Amino acid sequence: MDFINALLLLLNYTVLPALTYGSQLALGAIFVTLIYGVLRFANFATGDMMSFGTMFAVLLTYYFQSKGINFGFLPTALLTIPFATLIMIFYMLLIDKTVFSYYRIKKSPPVQFAMVSVGVMFVTQAIIRIIIGTSDRRFLDGEKFIIKATEFKEMTGLNEGLTIKSTQVITIFITIIVVSIIFWFLNKTKTGTSMRAYSDNEDLALLSGIDPKKVVLITWIIAGILATIGGILYGLDKSYRPFVYFNNMLPIFAAAIVGGIGKPFGAFLGGYVIAFAEIFLTYAYKKFFSYLLPVNLMPDSMMQILSTDYKFAISFSILVLVLLFRPLGIFEGKRL
Amino acid sequence: MRKYEDIITAYIIILLLISLVGIFQSWSTALTIFNYCLISAVMTIGANIQWGYAGLINFGIMGYTALGGLAVVLVSVAPVPEAWRVGGINMLSCVGIIIGMIFLIRYVLKKITKSKKRNYLITAIILIGLLLLKIISGPAIVNIEAVDPAKTGFLGGLGLPVLFSWIVGGLLAAGVAFIVGKVALGLRADYLAIATLLIAEIVVSIIKHEDWLARGVKNVIGLKRPAPYEVNLQNTTWFIDLIEKLNSGKLNLINSLVDRQNTLNQLVIEASSVFVKLCFAGLFLSVVIILLLLTQKALYSPWGRMMRAIRDNEEAANAMGKNVVKQHLLIFILGSAIVGIAGAMMVTNDGLFTPGSYRPMRYTFVIWVMVIVGGTGNNFGAILGGFVVWFLWVQAAPLALFFIELFTSHLPETNAIRMHLIESAPYFRFLLVGLGLLIIMRYRPQGILPEKVIKQ
Amino acid sequence: MAFFEGNMMTGGYGDGPDIISSCTITANRGEIVAILGPNGAGKSTAMKAMLGLLKLKSGIVSIDGEDISELSPQERVKKGISFVPQSRNVFAELTVKENLEVGAFLRTDGISKVIEEIYDLFPILREKKDQIVGQLSGGQRQQVALGRALMIKPSVLMLDEPTAGVSPIVMDELFQHIVQVKKTDVAIIMVEQNAKQALSISDRGYVLVTGQNKFKGSGKELLNDPEVRRSFLGA
């Protein structure tokens, strides 16, 4: 019995949150990696682009709510996804046309691209702050829990309750759908294959008659979908705050590099690697051991490997180890 | 002298702009801006050495700035004896353990050839060391942080003169840059950018969360300054006399003695603030000039030529037997040290250390915009960039407010859009700086003062 | 008039000096033409000019009597001109089959038949069709590169040093494959360093020196020409 209690505890406080957070990172990391692979630059506007799409979801949610439109027990924000995504894609294409395309035609070095993306970051952040401000916003409505701890305890008679938040299930569910569609598209369709070919060997792709403009267009469209959905899921699960989105760029970058930058499936897995590492290393295991160990062996301390203040330090340390020992990512040489 | 014409014109324009602030707003505000321009200039000199001389992207400016600030606390604040008594020995032994770990690892690296065994050994040393550190420091940290937490709760500093901390700030930043450089400098340019960004984030989070070190987000206030305090000046006879003399014309027009005294008091209060800022300006200006002289000298020395050769063609330089890795490390350390000095200057200027305020937008990306806008590889350009961009950064809000008022003047005062825009005026600085960067990169990619202007 | 012609081509890279001047290369279907010459003679440049990767100052490139001098490389691909670069000539991260599919990107009709034809030509590729090309051996990669280029059923195939960096045994095998491709009525132009072996399978050859035609003739003629032998064949 105690063993089940201990496992439930871990499931409740580490596995479920890590899967959720990992999914959110994974979507962002695929976004980063696609831009890096196809357009060949590290996009420092990543976090703010995700924030941009989410902002419209928040605003539309408020609008729908004011019109009395809702999605039953599901969050209204899910209804806004198509609209927010469209606006996001439009914004990305506009930025590409007015800013990035110039440097692409000039074949500028990646460093210059990165610097330009810093400019885009500033502008995007300005637009967001001017439109919605900087405050913390919650826009989750509908049912908050699928299973509550107390209900679960009554149902099973166990000591330890299990809480499943609806945002956790929604996040994991939508991530599975979105990621499946994207990988099906990349691996099984002609356009997807041409995108991977372009990312792998641009010159040869051009010689094979692949239209670079189309590849760039499709890349931004997929990027827009990933950025918006990833951003909305994160916002629903935690809250929407522009500054936090900017900071999320760091673990997202780490996930993309850990997975081998330019490799979408690697980035997907990288998201979970970072999330699990962050949560497992900062979780206080005291209660977990209290179920497993006899009372006289109980540890005094919190049994926490690292304070939660150092979440970033974990993604960074993983990043450094990967860069030093496997610069092409931890899945190097594997077919993904 | 033709080659300096651009530079002189550009500087005259920006100084005129700051003077306009003095005339229309107040001289105290103008001097605040000017001082921050000087601090920014020191930061841009540091970033420009790395980017302009060597092509290294360091997105970790924020981290080194914060380290400089930390140095001010560690050097100038008086030590807290009680905290030292309850936890000092433990913390000192931790330092000993870290040094021991470093030497052990170095020894292992030297004595054992590259192998799995060596990796395991090093991992074991690190893990055991970390465990020891945690065991020894844990109770000490609790004790230290419990010492009068509202006021101290940290070990305090050395109680030395604050100017000394500028050097220590540079050294501290240099030390961290050495470690970071050893780890990250072999990376490709964009990976380096990401890695340094993350490292800076970690440095700041350590400073923020290790309260025993510098009180973390509880801030350290009332730091010493290398200039007189306004309150003291206001009670100093020679200062009051000086102000009286300077304003004698104006004062003589006032007949009533009480009014005269009141006006004089007012003038003294204003002048004291200006005087303090002028003292800071003098100090900062000397630092900028010294650094400018040194960097200019370095740029035209054989070493500077070598650095640019490496930047422009790393492979060729490598082939010619130049030790690119070593030079990159050196320049990374130098640039970061200068940023550290700037960080110390800034905290000295503010008189308080607020770890929570270190954010990458303000302390990394804005500095980068300064370097790019001013002129990559050109020290005069980088400093100018510091001035121009900082000026825009602080004056953007009033400017935006002016234009918002202008364009929405036909709308009623209570119009929702108008009110929202007026409320958002502070955020227009991001727009202005971002657009500035994009426009410069597109139409004048070498910056306002390009490198070649002084190359000829 | 030959099927595929580069006539009196003059040009260089960007604003740089001319690398080829008044250089003429022609090829007919079912013919292998070798371009030879010392390093820096402009062999690859001549080929790139015919592909459209280089802007000509003067001269005409034509296929089947049609002037294509102003067309972009992609548009020339549509005219049936296929190219195998010297390096990075495969999509290393894609599978063999995907490489072939990308090669047929411009085809709108069913490509499974063409893929089968390529597999018949290079049986090893059928065996490895689901493998990542990056994991194949050098010789196998070159076959993938050839296969990819043949997917559009080209009338002209241009090869830039197809045997660079492969072992002598693989080289022989590759040349045999090239001869097989020629039998499918394709005009083949190749730049080669291994002059003797190349000439032995070529119908004709050109020797370029400082960007100009120095010698030309059938493979046998060039092989037996004493001056060519002395200066380029090392015998």
Please tell me about this protein's structure:
The complex is a heterotrimer of chains A (336), B (456) and C (235). By secondary structure, chain A is mainly alpha-helical. Chain A has one domain (23-264). Chain A has helices at 2-39, 46-66, 77-105, 110-132, 149-156, 166-188, 190-200, 202-207, 212-237, 242-258, 264-282, 286-292, 311-325; strands spanning 145-147, 164-165. Chain A is globular. Chain B starts with a helix and ends with a helix. Chain B has helices spanning 2-24, 27-54, 61-76, 81-111, 116-146, 162-184, 189-209, 211-214, 230-234, 237-246, 248-252, 257-299, 302-312, 314-319, 324-350, 360-374, 379-407, 416-424, 428-443, 452-455. With 456 residues, chain B is mainly alpha-helical. Chain B folds into two domains: 2-79 and 156-455, no CATH class; 80-155. Chain C is globular, with a radius of gyration of 17 Å. Chain C contains ten helices and ten strands. In chain C, β7 (156-160), α7 (168-183) and β8 (187-191) form a beta-alpha-beta unit. In chain C, strands 6-7-8-3-9-10 form a six-stranded mixed beta sheet, with helices on both faces. In chain C, α3 (96-103) packs parallel to α6 (138-150) and α6 packs parallel to α7 (168-183). Chain C has a single domain (27-41, 72-207, 218-233), classed as P-loop containing nucleotide triphosphate hydrolases (Rossmann fold). Chains in contact: A-B, A-C. At the A-B interface, α4, α10 and α13 of A face α7, α16, α18 and α19 of B.
